[in-house]
Amino acid sequence: MPVRSVVRASRPALPPRPSRLPRRASLRGLAAGATTGVVALALALGGATSASAAQGSSWGEFQVFGSAGAYTGSMTLAGGFPATTFTSSSRQASVPSGSSTWQAASTPPGSQYGTSNGLPYLNQRPSQDSPTAAGAAVTTYTFASATPSSGWSFVLGDIDADQATITATGVGGAAVTAVQLGFQGTYNHCAGTGTPSCDAAGTRDQPRWDAATATLVGNPAGADTEGAAGWFSPSVPLETLTITYQQRTGFPVYQTWFATKTFSASGTATIGTGETATPYPGATVTVTDIDGRVIAVTETDDRGRWTVPALVASPGYAAAITPRGDEAAPQVGFSLVPGDAADLDFAFPVTTPAPAVVALEGTIVDERGVVVPERELQVIAEDTDTPFATTTTGADGTFTFPGLDPDRVYSVIDVTSGESTEFLAPGDFGTRAVPDAPETVDVTGTVTAPDGTPAAGQTLDFVPVADDPADQTARPDVSVVTDADGGFAADGLTPGADYLVIVGDDAENPVEFTAPEVGEASAPVGLVVPTAASVAVDGTVVDPAGVPAPGVAVSVLPVDGDAPVATTTTGPDGRFVVTDLVPGTTYRLAVDGAGDPVEFVAYVDRTLGTFALLPDEVPPIDPPVTDPGTGTPSVPPAGGAGSGTDAGSGTSGGTTSGAAGGRGPLAFTGSDLDQPLLLAGGLLAGGVVLVAGGAALRRRRAALATAAEARSSRG
């Protein structure tokens, strides 16, 4: 299908996202006769969703930097949640957009916080694929101040062939108990209404919580399933949170979400009380949390009203007012655990003089100087972080914000575009220009599986590339799902913008793409989807009695020859690992003493299963020796995988490399454990081809696995 560009004159504005302070920027010229102003702001973005009429919620936004074993990053939540940073020794960490994997509103955490569909999460792998302490990845979240004692949760997903031990410190570094971690339960996020299309096998697998070791443990078999999750709502303030993530079998991956529940705080400032009370506009209201940390600052409007729309649902808040004179009013304490807190009022003595006020008036025009009616605007005072009044332009484009402090400066925010003016005195606004709805382009194309069949039902996220890597987010401008023929149409892309196209939440292997310019000829555009650098496989060898067999030679052979491309031996636990295989290549796996070689395709990191030695082929077993360089063997809680020396580290056998070169970044994302990270692709005549795994690939791999099992049993 050819790729074509289509100019669109306009595009519906996206719903505004929660904002904070405007950023000041360069001056821009306005329409003839207008005063000079600044259109500056790109408002800070959040992930708010509405769970009910009064309650709000937010799923955390992640950023990740660094490389294997030395990742750093940040996690941001709305509602005044403390700034959060983290470090991780994970071999791989990425931030998928959440378009293919999410917490639905029907899941236990979703019932509290709403759906996370289309919102990012953190995807990680262990430090090594080894069931030892040395192979574990340690991720520690550090909060800038103690977290609230309620109103927030974290979720760990895809805990199946792995385990996650959770520790935390409270105020002053005190150890937090397993009970205080607030384990809420386990579930399968693929099961229910509005969930992702996963768990095709219908296992409905769930992990189990071992309170004695504070460990979330995957299924006893260590089977690689989909959707197994657990969630936690800490009941005490935390200063740090650490997740020690360890492989038990195979090549596992896990996901992390954070979420907050928020409610609003509001009240009125008056002179006097009762029927004779008059509003007190222009006063500053400051909200602090239980630790005295300033959470929000706003101003009373012309009727004396103030509102902070989203604070984490926790106790111990206080609101204090700073009037414009020498008057005083006591601060008001409140809790948001039950819900919204209204009637947080301040009353000044009746002898208090009414403060002087002025109106901020102006006119909104477009970039051609034409007045813009029904444009939603907000106003925010300098040194505050919460807009305190909203209005809409009239039929003639004019607007008014009454009751402002004549000695203060303000910024007007255009809600539709997210831009704002610089901070100015109320009398200096005049006429302001807002940007026209941007022209956009559309792109169409086709997604195919490696065998050439259409890849139906694949999610494509078009994530804009930020100018500054520190500003890069996982939020896509456009998300589409391929149709039954593998076709897609991505509407509303920014002309000439650079994008990363994420296929099926596979954030480790993005496709670089530049949108066509407006008016650019519809010449075919070719994209070559990068392939994964290498693939790893593992398995276990047992003797005829089912006991793990160490020291067994394992070879990977080409499909048309007998010269090995990789060799290794099983470790003390009978496990072998072969890395650096060429993606998309068909190989044969030969286990010494287990019969004929088994054919497999190196599409993704995968477990090839258990291979039983034939009678009279069992090698002598030497006592296992733990290599000091591999770390202390780790014993999972009951029901987990076994323990022993890491077969893939130090000098012990069990891991080797093939002929593909250095090991590349490979990881499942949790969206579809059968989706290949090999995205072999190229230019088709007259169009874009994005190559990704789909249903046809799953059928082909299932057939290969069945054939391999049949050959193995015949051997």
Q: What would your notes on this structure say?
A:
The two termini are 46 Å apart. Among the domains are: 214 residues, no CATH class; 107 residues, Immunoglobulins (Immunoglobulin-like, Sandwich); 130 residues, Immunoglobulin-like. Helices cover 4% and strands 35% of the residues. The protein has 715 residues and is mainly β.
Give the tags.
about 725 residues; mainly beta; Immunoglobulin-like; eleven-stranded mixed β-sheet; about 5% helix; disordered N terminus; disordered C terminus
Q: Could you tell me the mean pLDDT?
A: 79
Count every helix, treating DSSP H or I runs of 4 or more residues as helices. Answer: 2
- Determine Rg (CA atoms, Å): 30 Å
Mind describing the biggest β-sheet?
11 strands, mixed
End-to-end Cα distance, whole Å, is 46 Å
DSSP strand content = 35-45%
Q: Which term fits the overall shape? A: globular
Structural class, by secondary structure, is mainly beta
Helix content: under 10%
Uncertain runs are: 1-53, 624-715
| Annotation, overall tally of beta strands | 47
